[in-house]
Amino acid sequence: MDELLRREWLEEAPDAPNGHRVYLRHSEVGTAALADRGVDISPSKARKPVAFACTDWTERRWHLGGALGRAIVDALSDAGCIEQTAGSRVVKLTGGLERWLDL
Question: Rounded to two decimals, what is the model's pTM?
Answer without folding.
Answer: 0.83
